[in-house]
Amino acid sequence: MGSDKTVQTLLLEQLEGKNAHVDFNQAVQGLTFKQAGIRVEDVPHTIWELIEHIRIAQNDILEFCKNPDYEALDWPDDYWPEKSKPDNREQFESSVQAVQDGIEEMRAMIRDSQNNVQQPFSYGDGQTLFREAVLIVDHNAYHIGQIVLIRRLLGSW
User: Fold this and answer.
1) How far apart, in whole angstroms, are the C-alpha atoms of residue 11 and residue 137?
2) Nearest Cα to 146, choosing from 34, 14, 22?
């Protein structure tokens, strides 16, 4: 049990994202919905596309963790938004909130004493809650770095 507690603590810290890099909240703090849709020359994605991609992928991972009848999305089409910018401020804020809520949902799953983070799910190919949490940490960190870089290029960092 002590080992599981240590693993849980480490996962919770990593999901918070404040150890080695900027966290999601810091990356989007002060960002406007108009800035999120600006395409920087020679950069393949807008900040909006990255935020939506994080949201979609994170939601997919969470759905896998909760649903034994999970059906995989089609890669890459289902993991990226159709539009390069949000329609309005509300859509932008909703997406940002959904990412924050998803991170907290994974943290709650890890804190739940009923969940053994190292026990493979009864479905899938041996995935564990540990693996899925690390996948969120790794995937989010990569794209958060891209968000920060684009903000620097836009002069808004």
Assistant:
1) 9
2) 22
Count of structural domains within the chain? 1
Contacts of residues 88-92 at CB distance under 8 Å and 24 or more positions apart, as own/partner, are: 88/33, 89/32, 89/33, 91/33, 92/33, 92/36, 92/48, 92/51
Contact partners, residue 48, CB within 8 Å, separation at least 6: 33, 36, 37, 81, 83, 84, 85, 86, 92, 95
Whether 53 contacts 43, CB under 8 Å: no
Cβ atoms of 12 and 118 closer than 8 Å: no
Instruction: Between 6 and 66, name the one with better pLDDT.
Output: 66
CATH number at residue 52: 1.20.120.450
Mean pLDDT score across all residues of the chain:
95
Q: Residue 143: give the domain boundaries.
A: 2-154
Instruction: Give the model's pLDDT for residue 52.
Output: 98
pLDDT tens for 7-54 read: 999 999 999 876 778 999 999 999 999 999 999 999 999 999 999 999
